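call fold target=HTH marR-type domain-containing protein
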Amino acid sequence: MMQEAQQLGAMLETLQPMTSSGSERQSAQGLSHNDEPNALANAPSKERMLELLRIRDIKTRYFSDKLFVDPAWHMLLDLMENHLQDKQVSVSSLYIVSGVSAATASRRLDEMEGVGLVRRWLDPDDGRRQFVALSDHSIELMTSYLCALDQQMQGKP
């Protein structure tokens, strides 16, 4: 399970070329520093990013979620959507979004927190409830992912 969270983190790291400029990444991408797009400067509008995030819902019209459930990815997408809408997300609502049991979702969330994809904190008004959000680094990675998706859909390299 921890391996899946680490693989997800590694997958998101491959998108980092749009937001940082490490030489190891440049050589892997075959890009020079001047050729790199700046994801944050060229990011689609908030409305476009929300539209791109909601594309995932099309799949459920044609395929059962039970066969294609990916709880960590569903949680990341939901957290990004809520981040763009300036909404707080409770841990319990994130479990529902994951599409798996609360126990499985809890393990995935622990793994995601362990690799730095998310952060959690107690509700100051109700100590029984926890909130969760993407880490700053994950926000950058998800923004890069959405930029790459938008460019792909527009036929740009």
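return ok
The two ends are 34 Å apart (CA to CA). Strands lie at 89-90, 118-122, 130-134.
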